[in-house]
Design a protein that fits this description.
single chain; alpha/beta; Rossmann fold; globular; signal-anchor; Put_SAM_MeTrfase; glycoprotein; methyltransferase activity; membrane
Length: 615
């Protein structure tokens, strides 16, 4: 039965009326105070809490490979809710210095430039001095900018020309002047598209490969390529036009800064070497591997370098070798060719094409077997087949093996077939998904999550200028959903699977994307100032137990270009630890929705130079 005001007075319920009136007045005052407050709160000159964005999309499944908790993407209903949790004015009193390495400091790579460790090596015969030797503890100095450094030339113009002052290393111009690798023209380096084996230009060379073997359909059955000893990566750069993504790699050697040239051009590349350790890629990753005069002794150390290529090449995949032993018959080249024939025969590689072009440059194309029949028919079982893996071994500081890697199988033990053609393979079910019943549902949900998050928040809501972004690292890539969601943007993504995360790198390659294993407690194999955007989704959960967040911030500062962005999605606990370090580095930082931290690196260095330009 309804209670009227008259009845309430009759029943002498004065205490209730008094309490009700007081509550009504209080709510009115609070509403008036809130309506008069500002919608955004500026907390410091460098750190701003943004106006609310659209709510982030639905959360990932609880067993996502990124270790994203189910509650991680719950929307923050009001901006003040995010601000009340954290004191954004907290700053660390850190005294930064430039690395004291003379002229070498601008290109400092801690794990490749540890000269003390290199001097103590007992041997350099197998390229040990080009491998990783990380200093302990990690150095906390900053790489200075080259004199005259400018904002890089934007893609696609950068494929053909870059600022000389950003990579001021002219030695390669003189060393390779007859081969049209690179020329200096005024304030620019210009890349004509030549190479040691590309006498008519790299585009003509790419067309020559397809003409030699039409089964190689660029951008369809051939999507992911490894270019060994890539020079300035023109081969990979021109293949981008054909929907092919190439991981170009070379060591940091006397070919001064070739990988730095490649990355400054906006072409995917990484510093690496085939020495004594496995490459940081999973088994059976690449559709095709290319070597044009890459100066690798394939038969060295019992053939281990070529066995390593066999490991990362997919069954049925191709190896293209363009080198003088293929088309010259002098004593030295004949000896190398004879050794190569013996080695490839023992691996059951089949020659599917061998030819010479109009310039006199030749190539041979091998194909890796897609079944065990040839292996079983070998008279000498050398090299032997590798032992059956009981679990996946991440190739991180793993020595090269003298064995033939086993062919991949599905969950039922059947040999895997060739990947779905591109671009369908990007969204198709990857063969390497875990065998759990809900694994496919988790993968589909992960793909939907990243598509929505990138579209609704990253592209529309965050203050990031996509026109300035070309080179991207996803520091905790999971299934590669972030890269997949950006596939139509004019950029490329290096997907990194941390060594302490679920091993999903095979899945990333099966989707037609590229990536590497890495331990973020150590420096990455790249030069300073080579990436425009660093993306870190719930990266710090495992890292903070093994290394200091300050060391990671120094590394992020090293590899990010001035004007580049860091995009972090994480817990407020980790954001509160990271933000003061970034502010001490003079980064501007902005917090969105209480979980998205956007940092922008400026041109500041501990020792300013008037010649450094921000235009």
């Amino acid at each position: 039965m309804p209670i009227s005001v008259q009845n309430m007075f009759k029943e002498r319920k004065f205490p209730f009326l008094f309490a009700f009136s007081f509550l009504l007045i209080s709510v009115t005052i609070l509403l008036f105070s809130y309506s008069s407050s500002s919608p955004s709160l500026l907390l410091s000159t460098n750190f701003q809490v943004s106006d609310p964005l659209p709510p982030p999309p639905r959360p990932l499944p609880s067993r996502s490979p990124n270790n994203v908790p189910v509650s991680s993407t719950k929307p923050v209903s009001k901006t003040t809710a995010a601000a009340s949790d954290v004191d954004l004015n907290v700053s660390l009193d850190l005294k930064w210095e430039n690395c004291q390495l003379g002229p070498l400091a601008v290109d400092y790579i801690p794990c490749l430039d540890n000269w003390k460790a290199i001097k103590e090596l007992k041997s350099r015969r197998r390229m040990e001095h080009r491998e990783r030797h990380c200093p302990k503890p990690s150095p906390r100095c900053l790489a200075p900018l080259p004199i005259g450094y400018k904002v890089p030339v934007h893609w696609p113009k950068s494929r053909d020309m870059i600022w000389y002052g950003n990579v001021p290393h002219p030695k390669l111009v003189e060393y390779k002047k007859e081969q049209n690798w690179v020329r200096k023209s005024g304030d620019y380096f210009v890349f004509p598209g030549g190479g040691t084996q590309f006498k008519n230009g790299v585009q003509s060379y790419i067309d020559f490969i397809h003409k030699t073997l039409p089964a190689i359909k660029w951008g369809k059955n051939i999507r992911v390529i490894l270019d060994v000893g890539c020079g300035v990566a023109s081969f990979g750069g021109y293949l981008l036009d054909k929907d092919v993504i190439t991981m170009s790699f070379a060591p940091k050697d006397e070919h001064e800064s070739q990988i730095q040239f490649a990355l400054e051009r906006g072409i995917p590349a990484i510093l690496s070497v085939i020495g004594t350790q496995k490459l940081t890629f999973p088994d059976n990753a690449y559709d095709l591997i290319h070597c044009a005069r890459c100066r690798v002794h394939w038969d060295g150390d019992g053939g281990k370098p070529l066995l390593e290529l066999n490991r990362v090449l997919k069954p049925g995949g191709y190896f293209i070798w363009s080198a003088t032993p293929v088309y010259r018959d002098d004593e030295r080249d004949s000896k190398v060719w004879k050794s190569m024939v013996a080695l490839t025969t023992s691996l059951c590689w089949k020659i599917v094409a061998k030819t010479v072009d109009s310039t006199g440059v030749g190539l041979v194309i091998y194909q890796k077997p897609s079944s065990y029949s040839c292996y079983k028919q070998r008279k000498e079982k050398l090299p032997p087949l590798c032992e059956q893996k009981t679990n996946q071994n991440v190739s991180w500081y793993e020595p090269l093996s003298y064995c033939i890697s086993r062919l991949p199988v599905d969950r039922m033990g059947n040999l895997l077939r060739w990947s779905t053609p591109w671009p369908q393979r990007l969204s198709s079910k990857p063969p390497s998904l875990p065998s759990e019943p809900d694994a496919e549902d988790i993968f589909i949900e992960d793909t939907k999550h990243w598509a929505a998050l990138v579209s609704e928040v990253y592209l529309d809501g965050l203050a990031i200028s996509l026109g300035r972004i070309r080179n991207v690292i996803d520091m905790n890539a999971g299934y590669g959903g972030f890269a997949a969601a950006l596939i139509d943007q004019p950029l490329w993504v290096m997907n990194v699977v941390p060594i302490d995360a679920q091993d999903t790198l095979s899945i990333i390659f099966e989707r037609g994307l590229i990536g590497v294993y890495h331990d973020w407690c150590e420096s990455f194999n790249t030069y300073p100032r080579t990436y425009d955007l660093l993306h870190a989704s719930f990266l710090f959960k495992n890292l903070k137990e093994r290394c200091d967040i300050i060391d990671l911030a120094v590394e992020m500062d090293r590899i990010l270009r001035p004007g580049g962005y860091l995009l972090v999605q994480d817990t407020m606990e980790n954001i509160k630890k990271l933000n003061p370090v970034l502010r001490s580095l003079h980064w501007s930082t902005t917090l969105y929705q209480g979980q998205f931290l956007v940092g922008e690196k400026g041109f500041w260095r501990p020792s300013e130079n008037d010649n450094r330009k921000e235009t």
